[in-house]
Specification:
Layout: E1 22-27, E2 33-39, H1 45-51, E3 70-73, H2 75-80, H3 86-92, E4 102-104, E5 117-120
Protein backbone atom coordinates (compact mmCIF):
# COMPACT_ATOMS: atom_id res chain seq x y z
CA UNK A 1 0.00 0.00 0.00
CA UNK A 2 1.33 3.43 -0.94
CA UNK A 3 0.70 6.54 1.05
CA UNK A 4 1.17 9.97 -0.44
CA UNK A 5 2.13 12.83 1.82
CA UNK A 6 1.98 16.41 0.63
CA UNK A 7 4.32 18.62 2.56
CA UNK A 8 3.73 22.33 2.28
CA UNK A 9 6.23 24.57 3.96
CA UNK A 10 4.87 27.98 4.69
CA UNK A 11 7.05 30.79 5.82
CA UNK A 12 5.50 32.65 8.73
CA UNK A 13 3.99 35.98 7.78
CA UNK A 14 5.88 38.65 9.67
CA UNK A 15 4.15 42.01 9.36
CA UNK A 16 6.40 44.87 8.26
CA UNK A 17 6.75 48.02 10.30
CA UNK A 18 3.59 50.11 9.81
CA UNK A 19 3.91 52.30 6.72
CA UNK A 20 6.96 50.44 5.38
CA UNK A 21 5.30 47.44 3.72
CA UNK A 22 3.95 46.73 0.27
CA UNK A 23 0.26 47.66 0.27
CA UNK A 24 -2.27 45.13 -1.02
CA UNK A 25 -5.98 45.92 -1.28
CA UNK A 26 -8.35 42.94 -1.04
CA UNK A 27 -11.83 43.28 -2.56
CA UNK A 28 -14.83 40.99 -2.73
CA UNK A 29 -16.37 39.76 -5.98
CA UNK A 30 -18.45 42.94 -6.27
CA UNK A 31 -15.41 45.18 -5.90
CA UNK A 32 -16.19 46.24 -2.33
CA UNK A 33 -13.16 46.78 -0.13
CA UNK A 34 -12.50 43.98 2.37
CA UNK A 35 -9.16 44.98 3.85
CA UNK A 36 -5.91 46.72 3.03
CA UNK A 37 -2.78 45.08 4.39
CA UNK A 38 0.95 45.61 4.26
CA UNK A 39 3.23 42.76 3.21
CA UNK A 40 6.91 42.00 2.88
CA UNK A 41 8.63 41.12 -0.35
CA UNK A 42 8.36 37.37 -0.97
CA UNK A 43 5.09 36.80 0.93
CA UNK A 44 2.39 35.10 -1.12
CA UNK A 45 -1.24 36.15 -1.40
CA UNK A 46 -2.65 32.93 0.09
CA UNK A 47 -0.54 33.09 3.26
CA UNK A 48 -1.30 36.79 3.64
CA UNK A 49 -5.04 36.20 3.27
CA UNK A 50 -4.96 33.51 5.96
CA UNK A 51 -2.84 35.65 8.28
CA UNK A 52 -5.20 38.62 7.98
CA UNK A 53 -8.47 36.60 8.10
CA UNK A 54 -9.45 37.23 4.50
CA UNK A 55 -11.80 34.54 3.17
CA UNK A 56 -9.50 32.87 0.62
CA UNK A 57 -9.74 29.11 0.93
CA UNK A 58 -6.53 27.38 -0.19
CA UNK A 59 -7.70 23.77 0.34
CA UNK A 60 -4.38 22.24 -0.79
CA UNK A 61 -2.41 24.67 1.40
CA UNK A 62 -0.38 26.02 -1.49
CA UNK A 63 0.74 22.79 -3.16
CA UNK A 64 -0.83 23.82 -6.53
CA UNK A 65 -3.27 20.90 -6.36
CA UNK A 66 -6.54 22.88 -6.40
CA UNK A 67 -7.95 26.21 -7.54
CA UNK A 68 -9.54 27.41 -4.30
CA UNK A 69 -7.06 30.27 -3.84
CA UNK A 70 -8.00 31.69 -7.25
CA UNK A 71 -7.79 35.49 -7.30
CA UNK A 72 -8.38 38.09 -9.98
CA UNK A 73 -5.77 40.79 -10.48
CA UNK A 74 -5.86 44.07 -12.33
CA UNK A 75 -4.01 43.95 -15.68
CA UNK A 76 -1.01 46.00 -14.44
CA UNK A 77 -0.42 43.66 -11.49
CA UNK A 78 -0.94 40.56 -13.64
CA UNK A 79 1.57 41.83 -16.21
CA UNK A 80 4.16 42.56 -13.49
CA UNK A 81 4.25 38.87 -12.51
CA UNK A 82 6.15 36.04 -14.19
CA UNK A 83 4.04 33.86 -16.49
CA UNK A 84 2.16 31.08 -14.66
CA UNK A 85 3.79 27.64 -14.74
CA UNK A 86 1.96 24.75 -16.45
CA UNK A 87 0.75 23.26 -13.15
CA UNK A 88 -0.80 26.59 -12.14
CA UNK A 89 -2.51 26.90 -15.53
CA UNK A 90 -3.86 23.36 -15.18
CA UNK A 91 -5.45 24.25 -11.83
CA UNK A 92 -6.73 27.59 -13.09
CA UNK A 93 -8.64 25.71 -15.80
CA UNK A 94 -10.84 24.37 -12.97
CA UNK A 95 -11.34 27.75 -11.28
CA UNK A 96 -14.82 29.25 -10.98
CA UNK A 97 -15.12 32.58 -12.79
CA UNK A 98 -11.76 32.39 -14.58
CA UNK A 99 -10.63 35.65 -16.19
CA UNK A 100 -7.68 36.72 -18.34
CA UNK A 101 -5.99 38.06 -15.18
CA UNK A 102 -6.69 35.11 -12.87
CA UNK A 103 -3.89 33.61 -10.79
CA UNK A 104 -3.58 31.23 -7.86
CA UNK A 105 -2.91 33.25 -4.71
CA UNK A 106 -0.37 30.67 -3.52
CA UNK A 107 1.74 31.44 -6.61
CA UNK A 108 1.63 35.24 -6.42
CA UNK A 109 4.77 36.40 -4.62
CA UNK A 110 4.71 40.02 -3.46
CA UNK A 111 7.32 42.35 -4.95
CA UNK A 112 7.76 46.12 -4.62
CA UNK A 113 6.36 46.46 -8.18
CA UNK A 114 3.01 45.24 -6.83
CA UNK A 115 2.68 48.00 -4.22
CA UNK A 116 -0.94 49.17 -4.21
CA UNK A 117 -2.24 46.18 -6.15
CA UNK A 118 -5.88 45.14 -5.89
CA UNK A 119 -6.67 41.47 -5.31
CA UNK A 120 -10.27 40.60 -6.09
CA UNK A 121 -11.81 37.41 -4.73
CA UNK A 122 -14.12 35.45 -7.04
CA UNK A 123 -17.77 34.96 -6.10
CA UNK A 124 -17.26 31.21 -5.52
CA UNK A 125 -14.66 28.45 -5.58
CA UNK A 126 -14.61 24.82 -6.65
CA UNK A 127 -13.19 22.65 -3.89
CA UNK A 128 -12.57 19.16 -5.26
CA UNK A 129 -11.38 17.99 -1.84
CA UNK A 130 -14.08 18.78 0.73
CA UNK A 131 -16.50 21.57 -0.09
CA UNK A 132 -17.20 23.90 2.79
CA UNK A 133 -14.10 23.06 4.81
CA UNK A 134 -11.52 25.83 4.97
CA UNK A 135 -8.03 25.42 6.38
CA UNK A 136 -7.14 27.60 9.31
CA UNK A 137 -3.85 29.39 9.70
CA UNK A 138 -1.18 27.35 11.42
Amino acid sequence: MSILFLACWHEPVIPPEPGKGIKIHFRDSKGESLKTIEAREGDNILDLAHEYDIDLEGACEGSVACSTCHVILEPDAYDALPEPEDDENDMLDMAFGLTDTSRLGCQVKVTPDLDGMIVKLPSATRNMFVDGVKPTKH
